Amino acid sequence: MSLVTSFTVAEKYSAFYTGGLIQLANDGSKLFCGCGKEVKVVDIKTGRISMSIGQEEAEDITHFILTRDDEFLILATQNQLFRQWRWKDKVLVKTWRSVHNAPVTSMALDPTVTLLASGSADFTVKVWDIVRGYFTHNFRGHTGVIRVTAFHPDSQRLQLVSAAEDYTVRVWDLKTSTCVVTSQCHVSLVTSLAFAENGDTMYSAGKDNVVCVWKTDKWKVFKTIPVFESVVSVIVPLEFPSLIDDDSIPRFITVSSSGEVRVVNAQTGQREYSNSCRLSDPETDTEDTDSYITQAIYCSDLNGILLATYDQNILLLSKDFTTEKQLCGHLDEILSAHFLGEEASHVAVATNTDLLKVFNRDTWECQMLQGHSDIITSLDVRGNFIVSSSKDSTIRIWQLSPDTGFVTCLAVGQGHTQSVQSVALARLNSRPAYVISGGVDMTFKLWTFPAESDVTPMATLRVSATEHAHDKDINCLAVAPNDKVIATGSHDKTAKIWSIGDDLHSVSLLAVLRGHKRGIWGLKFSPVDQIVATCSGDGFIKLWSVTDFTCVRTLEGHDSSVLSILFLCNGRQILSSGSDGLLKLWLIKTSECMKTLDTHEAKVWTISSTKKEDFVLSGGTDSTLVMWKDVTEQEEMKKQEELQKKVLQEQVLSNLIADKKYLRAIGLAISLNKPFQALAILKEIISQGDGEKQLEKIICKLRMDQIESVLKFAVEWNTNSRNYFPAQMLLNVVLKNYLPQDLAKLSGILPIVEGLTVYTERHLQRLDNLLIDSHFAEYCYGCMKTAST
Could you say which of 555, 575, 595 is where a domain stops? Predict the structure, then answer.
C-alpha cells in the first residue's frame, strides 16, 4: 500500500435546520428549512443540501413562504424587508420594505398567488399586491403578536383570517377593508388554521386543548371539540389512514406538541386512530414532553405529514402515521463518528444527545435510536456491531442488519458508578470476544460479548473483570490487534498497558507510560508493529514500544490539544486531529507532517476510516461531519499526465525550432506560458544573418493577445543583464511596427510599460558607464602607445 499524500472533501454534512420554520415544495421533492441567516433547500430523496438562499448582508430571517407554483420564495428579514427570490435560479427578483414597525411573524398567500398577507409583532396585518409591489390593506385590531394568517380558499370571497397572542381570531373582508368577525373561542394561543369542504368549514386549534369547528358562510363557531392536548397543527388531508373506512364523515388530524398524531371525528369528537412519533421516551424525557413537536405541515403529493421537532429533527410520516424517513437537521457537537457495516454503507454518530444516530450514506436518512437516558459520549464499531457509552453510566451493544439496514439494541451493560467516557471492541474476530469500558469512576470493565446463541432482546452484559486503573478520569481505550493487550489513557497524564488472561477474567498491568505533560485524549495500537500511539492536551503525539515500553518517537506540530489519532497505510502514517480544527497527516519514519487539512472551524473530537482507508470521517464542535476521500492515486495520475503532456509539447517545440518554424514555435511557447523557451527561440532567430528582419517578419504575424504575452515575457527577460538585448530588440520591433493607440488598448499595457521602464533605464545607465569606461581605456592605451615610442 502506497503512502497517502492527498485528501479532498468528498462530502460535508452540516446543519440545514436550526429551528423555526419549514416549508415543503408542492411536488414534495424539496424541503425549505430555516437555518439562521439562510434558508437551506434540501433534497428529500438524498437528504443533501441543494442550495442556500440568503443575502450577503447575512440578516436574520424571521419568516418565509413558498408560492403555490414553487417558483418564488419570499423571505421576511429582521431588517423589516421582503425579498422575493426565484429560488431555482438563485436570483433575487425584488426587495421592498415591509412597512411594519416590528419583524414579520406570519405570512400567507391567496389562491391566485397575487396577494400576500403579513402579520407582525407590531400587532397589525398587511396585505400586499406582490405583482405590483405595494400594500393594499392595513388591518389593525389585534392586541398581540400575529401568529397565524390564512386566506379563504375561494379567491372570489377575498377574506383573510388571522390569529394572535391576544387569543382572538379575526376575519377580515378585503372588499370592504373591515373586520367581519372577532372571536374569543380560544383561551390560549391559536397555533393552526385549516379549511375543509371547499372552504365551507374551518378548523382552528391551539394550546387550550380544543379544536373549534367554524362554518364560514356566517363565520360562526358551531362546535368545540376537546382533544385534551396542546395542538401544534390541525390538518385536513386528501386521504386518511387505511384503517378508516367511512370517508363520508368529516374528520381532521391533530398533531400535538407531545408527538401524538390523531384522527378525530368532527361529528362525535372521538379519536378514531392515533400514533406516537416520539423518538425519546416521554417518561424519561419529561422536560421536553410538552414541546416535542414545533411544526407540522401536510404534503398532498406525498400524502404525508412532515414534522419538525424541538431538537431540530425532521420526520416524514406516511398516511398511516408511520415514520417513513428521518432527517437530522442539526447534529450539534459531534463526540464520536464511525463508518458502519462491512461495506461502510452507514455512519454511526454520537452527538450531544441521548439518541444514537445512524445515517445511510446514500440517502443520509437518519435512524435516531433511543435507549440511553443521557448524552452518548463514545462509540466504537466492528463490522455490523456498535458499542456506545453514556453519561447514564451504561453501555449498549447495537447491531446493524445488512438486509434491512435497521439497527437494534442487543444488550445493555450496567455496573459503572459514574459517566462512561470511552468504549472499545475487541479487534481479532468479526464478532468481538469482549468489550472494554472506562470513565469518570477511574475504573475500566471487561464485558463478555454475548454469543450469537445467547442473544435475547435487551440481554444483560456480564462483567468479566474490573480494574481500578487511574487516579483521574479514563478518557480513552484501545485494543491491540491480537486482543491480548489493551491500553488505557487518562486525565492523570499517563497511559497504561494491560494484559488480558485467556479466560477474560484476569487483567494484569504490564507498564505505565509517562511523558505527557497533560491529560491523554486518544490512543491507538499500530495494526502491524508493536507500537501504541498516544495524543495529549500538551500538543504532542508519542509512539511507544510495546516490547520495552519506551517512547520511540515524538511528533510535534499541533499548536493545541491533540484529541484523536488514527493509523493509516499499514501503520506507516498517522492522521491526527486537534482542538484548533486542523487535521494533520504524519509520516512516522521521518516524524514529518506531510499535509494539513483545514476545513473544520472548531475542535475535531473524532476521526475514523473505512477498512480500505479510501475514506476518512471527521467531526467535532462545529456540528459538521466531513467525509474525506484519499485522492493520492488520482493526484499521482494527474501529475504523470501533466508531465507526459509537458514532455510531448517540449518535444514538439524542439522539433519546430530545429525545423526553423519559428512562428509556430513562438506561438506554442506563448500558449504554454514558457517565457524562457520563447527567449531561446528569439536568440536563435537573432543569431541568424538577417535576424532582425526575420524577427520583425514573425512579430508582425502575431495576434494582439500574443503581442501582449510576448511583451510580458520581455519584462521578465529585461530584469537580467544577460537577456536584456533580445528584450530590447523585441521592444524595438514592436514599437516600430505597431501604433501607440493600438498598444494602449492592451489590457495589461500599464504594468508592462512600468516593468520595462525601470530596468531599461538601468541598462541605459550601465551602457553609458561602459561607454565612458571604453573612452578612458582608449585614452590610456593612447598614452601608453605615445610613451613607448
Answer: 575
